[in-house]
Write a structure and sequence with these properties.
The complex is a heterodimer of chains A (about 325) and B (about 160). By secondary structure, chain A is an alpha+beta fold. Chain A has helices at about 10-20, 35-40, 75-80, 80-85, 90-95, 100-105, 110-115, 165-170, 190, 270-280, 285-295, 305-320, and strands at about 5, 25-30, 45-50, 60, 65-70, 175-180, 185-190, 210-215, 225-230, 240-250, 255-260, 270. Chain B is of the alpha+beta class and about 160 residues long. Bound molecules: flavin-adenine dinucleotide, iron/sulfur cluster and FE2/S2 (inorganic) cluster (2 copies).
C-alpha cells in the first residue's frame, strides 16, 4: 500500500473542506472496497478522510412518506430497519443478497453505490485496463469475460457494476444527495452511474470533492417487491444476473410495474419503455415484451453470452412468481 | 494511536497503513486472529468491534480508535472458555484450526444479530423474527470459509450455543 496521510473530521463542513482541492484524496467509510483496492495499489490516495464520525448514520422518515438514509448507515442496519423491511422489501433483499455478514456490518450506503467493478483485469495491475489506466486497452474484450456486460458496453470497457443495492435503489427511483464546497445538489439514481463510453475510468457523475450525505427514497410504488439474484454459489458471490422488481399484478395480468437488472451493464439497467410494454399483459407476454426492450442490441463477448438468455429467464420467472 | 482491545487500553506507534489485523497480530501479539486472504474473502480475521463482527483485514487500525475490539483471546482463555469455544471443542468444529478463531468470533456476533431480529437472505418473511434454523446459520456464516470443510460440526456447535442461550 502506498503511504498517505489520514484525518478524521467530526463535521460535514470539515470533511468537505478536507477534500477540497485534493484530487488525490479519498473519503473512506467502511473501507471494504477502498482498502482492498489500496492493498492492490489500484487506488493510491495521498490523503484519506475518514467519514465515520460525521453522524449521517440515521434513517429518517420524510414528509412525503419516503425515507432519507444517511450515507453512513451500514448495509446490515439498513436491511434490518423495520421500515425498510415492511415498505422497501426489494432493498432489504438486495442488501442481504450481497457480500457477507461481516462485510455488511461495515459497508455503508454511500460506499456501496461507489464500489468499483470486479473485472479481473481491473484488479491485475500487470494487465491493460482502460478503467484503471486510461488508454492502455481492455483485456476483457478478448479475455475471461464471463462476468462482463452484455448491454450498454463500449469498445473501451465491458465491465459491470457489481452492487446489488444499487439495482434496488434504481427500481425505487432513489435520489443521491451530495454536498461540496460549492454547495448541495441531488442526483437522480438514474443519472448517478454512467456508461463507460470512451471514459471508462469514470464510474459515476459524482464530482471530485463531493460528499454523499444521504440517499432519499420516495414513497414505495404500489405492487409486490422482489429481488432475485442468480450467482455461482448460493451465498457470498456477486450476481451474474439480478432482477429488482416492483410488480402490480391482479387477475392474471400485470397492471404495471418496474424492473431493474444487475450484472448486465456498467450501471443498474432499467428502461421505462420496457415497463410501458409490460402494462396490461399476461405475465409471460409482459416478461417477453420487457426483455425485448431491455435486451435490445445485447451482445456477448465469448464467455458471457449466456447472460442474455439467463436474463430473459430470470425476468420471466420473477414476473410469473408475482401473480396475485 | 490508542486502541481498546479485550478491555485494555493500548497505546501504539503505528504506520497509518497498518490494518487492524496487523496491529493485533504483529504489534499486540494477539495471534489468534488469522490472516487468510487479507482481502475480506475468507473471514479468518473476524473480530468483534463494539460487539459487531467485522473483517479486521479491511479496517485500518486507526479507524478502530474509540471502538472496543474483542478478539478470540478476549472471548475466553483455556481455563475460562467462552460457551462458543467450548461448543467448538465439544463438537469437533475444526480440523486444522486455522479458520476457527474467525469462525468463533463470527458465530458470537452472528447469534447477537439473530437475537436482535436482523434478517438474512434466507429469512422467509422479512416481517417475522428469524429462527435459528440450519439454513439461517449456514447463510449467516457464509463469510467464514473453512478449507477443511468442518462445516457440519461448526453448524452443530453454533446451534448448540444458540439453542441454549
Ligand atoms: C469478498 C467481498 C464480497 C462482496 N460481495 C458483494 C456482493 O455480493 N454484492 C455487493 O453489492 N457488494 C459486494 N461486495 C462489495 C461491498 O458491498 C462494498 O465493498 C461495500 O458496499 C463498500 O462500502 P464501504 O462503505 O466499505 O466503502 P469504502 O470502501 O469505504 O468506499 C468505497 C468508495 O466510496 C467512496 N465513499 C465512501 N463514502 C463516501 C461518501 N459519503 N461520499 C463520497 N464518497 C464516499 C470512497 O472514497 C471509495 O471510493 C463484496 C465485497 C467483498 C470484499
Ligand atoms: S472491462 Fe473495463 S475494467 Fe475490465 S479490463 Fe476492460 S477496461 Fe478494464
Ligand atoms: S484475512 Fe480478512 S477476510 Fe480473509
Ligand atoms: S478447520 Fe481447517 S480451515 Fe477450518
Amino acid at each position: 500500500m502506498k503511504s498517505f496521510t489520514y484525518e478524521r473530521p467530526e463535521s460535514v463542513e470539515a470533511a468537505v473542506a478536507a477534500i477540497r482541492g485534493h484530487p488525490q484524496a479519498r473519503f473512506v467509510a467502511g473501507g471494504t472496497n477502498l482498502l482492498d483496492l489500496m492493498k492492490h495499489e489500484i487506488e493510491a490516495p495521498t490523503h484519506l478522510v475518514d467519514v465515520n464520525r460525521l453522524g449521517l448514520d440515521q434513517v429518517e422518515e420524510t414528509s412525503d412518506g419516503g425515507l432519507r438514509i444517511g450515507a453512513l448507515v451500514r448495509n446490515s442496519d439498513l436491511a434490518a430497519d423495520a421500515r425498510v423491511r415492511s415498505r422497501y422489501g426489494v432493498l432489504a433483499r438486495a442488501l442481504l443478497a450481497g457480500a457477507s455478514g461481516q462485510l455488511r456490518n461495515r459497508a455503508t450506503t454511500a460506499g456501496n453505490l461507489l464500489q468499483r467493478t470486479r473485472c479481473y483485469y481491473f484488479y491485475d495491475p500487470a494487465k491493460p485496463c482502460n478503467k484503471r489506466e486510461p488508454g492502455s486497452g481492455c483485456s476483457a474484450l478478448a479475455g475471461f469475460n464471463r462476468i462482463h456486460a452484455v448491454v450498454g458496453q463500449s469498445d473501451h470497457c465491458i465491465a459491470t457494476h457489481p452492487s446489488d443495492m444499487a439495482v434496488a435503489m434504481r427500481v425505487l427511483d432513489a435520489t443521491v444527495e451530495v454536498v461540496s464546497a460549492e454547495g448541495e445538489r441531488s442526483i437522480p439514481i438514474a443519472d448517478f452511474h454512467r456508461l463507460p463510453g470512451d471514459r471508462p475510468e469514470i464510474d459515476t457523475t459524482l464530482e471530485a470533492g463531493e460528499l454523499i450525505t444521504h440517499v432519499a427514497l420516495p414513497p414505495p410504488p404500489p405492487g409486490q417487491q422482489v429481488y432475485r439474484k442468480v450467482r455461482d454459489r448460493a451465498s457470498y458471490a456477486f450476481a451474474l444476473v439480478s432482477v429488482a422488481a416492483v410488480l402490480d399484478e391482479a387477475e392474471g395480468r400485470v397492471r404495471g410495474g418496474r424492473v431493474a437488472m444487475g450484472g448486465l451493464a456498467h450501471k443498474p439497467w432499467r428502461s421505462e419503455k420496457a415497463e410501458a410494454a409490460m402494462a396490461d399483459a399476461k405475465p409471460g407476454q409482459a416478461a417477453q415484451a420487457a426483455a425485448d426492450v431491455l435486451l435490445a442490441g445485447a451482445r456477448g463477448h465469448g464467455a458471457n453470452g449466456f447472460k442474455i438468455p439467463l436474463a430473459r429467464q430470470t425476468l420471466a420467472s420473477v414476473i410469473a412468481g408475482c401473480e396475485g | 494511536m490508542r486502541l481498546q482491545v479485550n478491555g485494555e487500553a493500548k497505546v501504539l506507534e503505528l504506520d497509518v497503513r497498518t490494518s487492524l489485523l496487523d496491529a493485533l497480530r504483529e504489534h499486540l501479539g494477539l495471534t489468534g486472529s488469522k490472516k487468510g486472504c487479507d482481502h475480506g474473502q475468507c473471514g479468518a480475521c473476524t473480530v468483534l468491534m463494539d460487539g459487531r463482527r467485522v473483517n479486521s483485514c479491511l479496517t485500518l487500525a486507526v479507524m478502530a480508535e474509540g471502538s472496543e475490539i474483542t478478539t478470540i483471546e478476549g472471548l475466553g482463555e483455556p481455563e475460562r472458555l467462552h460457551p462458543m469455544q467450548a461448543a467448538f471443542l465439544h463438537h469437533d468444529g475444526f480440523q486444522c484450526g486455522y479458520c476457527t478463531p474467525g469462525q468463533i468470533c463470527s458465530a458470537v456476533g452472528m447469534l447477537e444479530e439473530l437475537a436482535g431480529g436482523m434478517p438474512s437472505h434466507v429469512t422467509p418473511d422479512l416481517e417475522r423474527e428469524p429462527e435459528l434454523s440450519d439454513a439461517e446459520v449456514r447463510e449467516r456464516m457464509s463469510g467464514n470459509i473453512c478449507r477443511c470443510a468442518a462445516y457440519p460440526n461448526i453448524l452443530a456447535a453454533i446451534k448448540d450455543v444458540g439453542g441454549a442461550a
